[in-house]
Automatic annotation (TrEMBL):
<feature type="transmembrane region" description="Helical">
    <location>
        <begin position="299"/>
        <end position="318"/>
    </location>
</feature>
<keyword id="KW-0812">Transmembrane</keyword>
<comment type="pathway">
    <text>Steroid biosynthesis; cholesterol biosynthesis.</text>
</comment>
<keyword id="KW-0753">Steroid metabolism</keyword>
<feature type="transmembrane region" description="Helical">
    <location>
        <begin position="229"/>
        <end position="249"/>
    </location>
</feature>
<dbReference type="InterPro" id="IPR018083">
    <property type="entry name" value="Sterol_reductase_CS"/>
</dbReference>
<feature type="transmembrane region" description="Helical">
    <location>
        <begin position="269"/>
        <end position="287"/>
    </location>
</feature>
<keyword id="KW-0752">Steroid biosynthesis</keyword>
<feature type="transmembrane region" description="Helical">
    <location>
        <begin position="6"/>
        <end position="25"/>
    </location>
</feature>
<dbReference type="GO" id="GO:0016132">
    <property type="term" value="P:brassinosteroid biosynthetic process"/>
</dbReference>
<keyword id="KW-0153">Cholesterol metabolism</keyword>
<dbReference type="Pfam" id="PF01222">
    <property type="entry name" value="ERG4_ERG24"/>
</dbReference>
<keyword id="KW-1207">Sterol metabolism</keyword>
<keyword id="KW-0472">Membrane</keyword>
<keyword id="KW-0521">NADP</keyword>
<protein>
    <recommendedName>
        <fullName>7-dehydrocholesterol reductase</fullName>
        <ecNumber>1.3.1.21</ecNumber>
    </recommendedName>
</protein>
<keyword id="KW-0444">Lipid biosynthesis</keyword>
Length: 442
C-alpha cells in the first residue's frame, strides 16, 4: 500500500528533480553558480523565464553523438569483455559472482567487470589527452548542458522501458512488485532485476556505468577546463579529483560487495534508479568540480591537508565499517573484529514460503558504535568535497545536504524493513546499539 506521504514525495520528485538539476547547472552556466541571482532576476522582473531558457544551450547532434558513443562503449565493455582484472590483481574479486537470494528465491549471476571498464576507459582518455588528441579533454565541460538533455532522454527512456517490461515481459515474474499506483510503480520500479539476455543487468549497469565511470572523467574535464581558462589547476580542484577518485575506485574495487547493498538487494528498478543514475548522479555529484571551474579556489597547504584528512578519515570509517559487516556475514561470525571475536545478536525471520531462517546482527567494531556508522563515514567524506570549495557560495554544499537527507531517509527505510523482517530481535539489537549515525546524538 502506498501512503499519502510516499505518494506526495514521489509526485514532488517526479515533477521537481529534473528542474532542480537544470536549475543548478543553469545557475553555473548563466550566473557563475549563484543560486539566488536567477531568482532575484525573475522576481524583480529583470528577466523572464523565457530569457533564461533562450540562453540555455539546446540539444546538439554533437552531444547526441558523444553520448550515444559513450553509452554504447560502456555497454560493450560491460557485456562483451569478461573480467580479467581478478586474474592478476591480488585481493580483487571480479568475474562471475552471485548476488543475494531474491524474495522469490532466485540467485542471479553477475559479470563483475566494472574495475576493468573503468581502467580501459581512463587509459583511453589519457592516451587521447597525451597522444592521439582526437578530442579536447574539456569536451565534457564544453557540452555539459547539451549532454544533460541526452542523459534525460536515456533516463526517461530506460525507466519507461523498465515499467513496460515489468508488465509485459518481466525477467522474473515472481520478483515483480505491483502496488497498483502508477506513479509509485514508475518511480520505485516493478521488476526486481530486469535483464536483457543472460548478462545485461539493468541495475548493475545503470548504477555503476555510465554514471560512476563518467564521474572521474567529468572531474578530469573540469580540471582541464581550469587549465585552459587560468593556466593552472588549483589545489582545491586536485583535492576534489583525488577524494572523489578514491570513492569511485573504491566502488569498482568492491563491486562484488556492492551486490549485497540495498540498491541491488532490496530496491526495484524504476525511475528512482534509472533516471537517478543517468542524470542526478553525474550532474549533482560533480557540482564541486563544476563550481571550481567558475571559482578557482586556492586553499593553501594547511586547508588542503585539513580537508584531505577529513576526507581520508571519512573514507576509512566508510570502508572499514562496510568491510566489518561483509567479513562478519561472509564468515558467519568466524572472524576477528578489532582483534577480538565479534559480538552479535542472533535473530530469525520467516520468508514468504513460511520457512524460518537465522541471521546475525553484529554489535562489535563500528557496528557497536552506531547502527549505520558506514553512512557517517560517507557523510564526512562528502563534507570534505564541499569544504574544498570554500564558503563563498551555497551551491557546492548542496551535495552534503542531499547526502544527509538521502542517507538519513535510507537509514529509516532500512530500519523499517529490518524491523518487519526481524521483529523483536531487531528491538533487542536497537537496545544494544541505540544510535543510528552519531553515538550519543542521533
Ligand atoms: P548497509 O550496507 O548498511 O546495509 C544494510 C543492511 O545490512 C540491512 O538491511 C541488514 O540487512 C544488514 N544489517 C544491518 N545492521 C547489521 C548488523 N549490525 N550486522 C549485520 N548486518 C546488518 O547499507 P547500504 O546498502 O545502504 O549502504 C552500503 C554503503 O553504500 C554505505 O556505506 C553507504 O554509505 C553507501 N551508499 C552511498 C550512496 C551514494 O549515493 N553515495 C547511496 C547509497 C549507499 P539483512 O537483511 O541482510 O540483515
Amino acid at each position: 500500500e502506498v501512503d499519502w506521504f510516499s505518494l506526495a514525495s514521489i509526485l514532488f520528485l517526479l515533477m521537481f528533480a529534473p528542474l532542480i538539476v537544470y536549475y543548478f547547472i543553469m545557475s553555473c552556466d548563466q550566473y557563475q553558480c549563484s543560486l539566488i541571482n536567477p531568482l532575484i532576476d525573475l522576481l524583480t522582473g529583470k528577466k523572464h523565464l523565457s530569457d533564461i531558457w533562450d540562453k540555455t544551450p539546446a540539444l546538439t547532434y554533437r552531444a547526441a553523438g558523444i553520448y550515444t558513443l559513450w553509452v554504447a562503449f560502456q555497454v560493450f565493455l560491460y557485456v562483451f569483455i569478461p573480467d580479467f582484472c581478478h586474474k592478476f590483481l591480488p585481493g580483487y574479486i571480479g568475474g562471475v559472482q552471485e548476488g543475494a537470494v531474491t524474495p522469490a528465491g532466485v540467485v542471479n549471476k553477475y559479470q563483475i567487470n566494472g574495475l576493468q571498464a573503468w581502467i580501459i576507459t581512463h587509459v583511453l582518455w589519457f592516451a587521447n589527452v597525451y597522444y592521439f588528441h582526437f578530442f579536447s579533454p574539456t569536451i565534457i565541460f564544453d557540452n555539459w548542458i547539451p549532454l544533460l538533455w541526452c542523459a534525460n532522454i536515456l533516463g526517461y527512456a530506460v525507466s519507461t522501458f523498465a515499467m513496460i517490461k515489468g508488465y509485459f515481459f518481466p525477467t522474473d515474474a515472481k520478483d515483480c512488485k505491483f502496488t497498483g499506483n502508477f506513479f509509485y510503480d514508475y518511480m520505485m520500479g516493478i521488476e526486481f532485476n530486469p535483464r536483457i539476455g543472460k548478462w545485461f543487468d539493468f541495475k548493475l549497469f545503470f548504477n555503476g556505468r555510465p554514471g560512476i565511470v563518467a564521474w572521474t572523467l567529468i572531474n578530469l574535464s573540469y580540471a582541464a577546463k581550469q587549465q585552459e581558462l587560468y593556466g593552472q589547476v588549483t589545489d582545491s580542484m586536485i583535492l576534489v579529483n583525488v577524494l572523489q577518485g578514491i570513492y569511485v575506485l573504491d566502488f569498482f574495487w568492491n563491486e562484488t560487495w556492492y551486490l549485497k547493498t540495498i540498491d541491488i538487494c532490496h530496491d526495484h528498478f524504476g525511475w528512482y534508479l534509472g533516471w537517478g543514475d543517468c542524470v542526478w548522479l553525474p550532474y549533482l555529484y560533480t557540482l564541486q568540480g563544476l563550481y571550481l571551474v567558475y571559482h578557482p579556489v586556492q586553499l593553501g597547504t594547511a586547508n588542503t591537508i585539513g580537508i584531505l584528512m577529513l576526507g581520508f578519515i571519512g573514507y576509512y570509517i566508510f570502508r572499514t565499517t562496510n568491510h566489518q559487516k561483509d567479513l562478519f556475514r561472509r564468515t558467519n561470525g568466524n572472524c576477528k573484529i578489532w582483534g577480538k571475536k565479534p559480538e552479535y545478536i542472533e535473530c530469525s525471520y520467516m520468508s514468504v514460503d513460511g520457512t524460518k531462517h537465522y541471521s546475525k546482527l553484529l554489535t562489535s567494531g563500528f557496528w557497536g558504535w552506531a547502527r549505520h556508522f558506514n553512512y557517517t563515514g560517507d557523510l564526512m567524506g562528502s563534507l570534505a568535497y564541499c569544504l574544498a570549495c570554500g564558503f563563498e557560495h551555497f551551491l557546492p554544499y548542496f551535495y552534503i545536504i542531499f547526502m544527509t537527507i538521502l542517507l538519513t531517509h535510507r537509514c529509516i527505510r532500512d530500519e523499517h524493513r529490518c524491523f518487519s523482517k526481524y521483529g523483536k530481535d531487531w528491538k533487542r539489537y536497537t537496545a544494544a546499539v541505540p544510535y543510528r549515525l552519531v553515538p550519543g546524538i542521533f
